[in-house]
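Re: [ENG-882] Designed sequences occasionally contain unexpected residues at chain ends

Forwarding the minimal case from QA. Structure tokens:
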């Protein structure tokens, strides 16, 4: 699977990573993620950050997300750095997204990560 870059965004399969005008990094995850896809996605995110700068917050759309392999979850966890003091807002309503969100909320034990039902709620919290 290849990474497709545009100005302020990257695509890995159907999943996208985009730096918004307001400095919030918007991630849309679509489908199941195994360790290979997670590693490629991590590379896309780091390359995009190097190109456009660090985000002031991260918003993750889990509405169409699928299962995350144990190794993929380890990769996502390795990318979270609490010392950077960046808020992460996860949102989505499907049952898989709620499982993914609960996993992140439990393992991170970080008040800078929260789960929301809607994008508007997530964005409002990130901007607060």
């Amino acid at each position: 699977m290849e990474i497709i870059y545009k100005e302020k965004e990257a695509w890995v399969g159907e999943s996208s990573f985009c730096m918004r005008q307001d400095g919030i990094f918007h991630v849309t995850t679509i489908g199941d993620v195994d360790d290979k896809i997670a590693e490629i996605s991590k590379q896309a995110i780091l390359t995009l950050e190097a190109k456009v700068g660090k985000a002031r917050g991260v918003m993750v759309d889990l509405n169409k997300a699928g299962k995350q392999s144990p190794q993929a979850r380890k990769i996502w966890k390795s990318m979270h750095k609490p010392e950077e003091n960046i808020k992460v807002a996860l949102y989505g309503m499907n049952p898989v997204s709620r499982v993914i969100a609960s996993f992140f909320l439990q393992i991170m034990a970080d008040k800078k990560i929260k789960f929301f039902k809607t994008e508007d709620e997530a964005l409002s919290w990130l901007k607060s």
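QA comment: On inspection the terminal residues look reasonable. The mean pLDDT is 88. Proposing we downgrade this to a documentation issue.
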